[in-house]
Amino acid sequence: MAALLIAGAASKVRAQSSDSTTAPASTSASPSARPVRIEAKAQALLDRLIQALGGQAFLNSKSLTTQGRLFSISSAGEGFVYFDSQTQFPDKRRLTYGLSKKTKPIVIINNGDLGWEIDRMGMVHLDSEDIRQWKFSNRYALENLLRLRIHEPGALVQSAGVDFVNNLPVDILDVVDATQTQIKICLEHATGLPVEVRYRKWDAEINDWDEYADDYADFRTFQGINTAMHIARSRNGRRFSELYRGSAVYNESYPQKIFEDPGAPQ
After folding, report:
1. Into how many domains does the chain fold?
2. What is the residue range of 149's domain?
3. For residue range 2-49, what is the model confidence (pLDDT) as tens digits?
4. Is residue 4 part of a domain?
5. For the whole model, what pTM was predicted?
């Protein structure tokens, strides 16, 4: 089940889309050479969103420790596991999970471009696809999206009107980031909190788009930060994982060795 827990490791299911299936066109200027552009109305929505999440407490948080249950679906099977997670923003994570706390758990470590898995058979390096999927999904996690992505050179943020998501009226922000990934951030109109983040990535191997949606719900406040306790992830219209957090603690200090190669000499 280890592959289920690497973000995006579920089997690919291609949904028919009304969007064009033409590959993204190249632009004359490199995105990194263009300034950040945020429309005035979009900036107001972003300011409201950040305040709803906790303002400076959200922006300045360094780490997040959570526990709970994870439900995953893939070609390998489906089911609930318990998990303990230590995340150090922006790109380090240690995820421990298992069917029961009485059995030996599986540990997945992500550290930027590196990754490892430890189970009862020993330690292996994560393959390049697992790491690629982790990096892509982590890139658009709320903390990284709102603190890093929208401020990178070449990013464009615009207001895109209103809609309904999960039967809630939402304000929509359209974002194109520095890598030209298209993102929609849907904010509950009543609270300013995120309801859903949609993003799409061109897959050159199959000449089609991958469409992702991360749904956020059941917000609770920990240390001044509004935290989604339920996160559901879908790809191409098919849900493949749901995270149910039971607790959350911010700004714990971790020994850096928990994110390092477990097979390296001590």
Report:
1. 1
2. 31-253
3. 434 444 333 333 333 334 444 554 444 565 568 999 999 999 999 999
4. no
5. 0.85
